[in-house]
Predict the 3D structure of the following.
Amino acid sequence: MEIVVDTSAILAVIGEQPEKKELVRLTRGATLVAPPSVHWEVGNALSAMFKRKAIGLDKALELLESYAAIPIRLTDLALRQAVELAARLNIYAYDAYVIACAVNQRAPILTLDSGLRARARELKLDVLEVNVL
């Protein structure tokens, strides 16, 4: 089974957030798939943490090592498709990349982003629910 994973889920796992255990459970035995933009989004999230003084370079490099250990198959997509989805759903391109990936792969999305989850459901895409006790 393939699962399209977005940056919010990845950050929760590498950042040891409360959702990590459930995210790992949901993806066990699955092939994780993401658009190539996921690399830049992870980098952007780390740079935002620098700006907020939430982490330093050593911690960022540790998080990058954890990210690199996650087997994710990057899949290309048509920029036109993503731009059309962004316009249609009134979303940022990064969210459109994830949705386009899910459409193209015919795979469910795993995200902690409520906006992305809602837009995916508008298109009748499968979205995996993350329940944290």
Observations:
- The CA atoms of residues 18 and 86 lie 30 Å apart.
- The chain is about 55% helix and 10% strand.
- The beta strands are 2-5, 31-34, 72-74, 109-110, 127-128.
- The helical segments are 7-14, 20-27, 37-51, 57-68, 79-89, 93-105, 114-122.
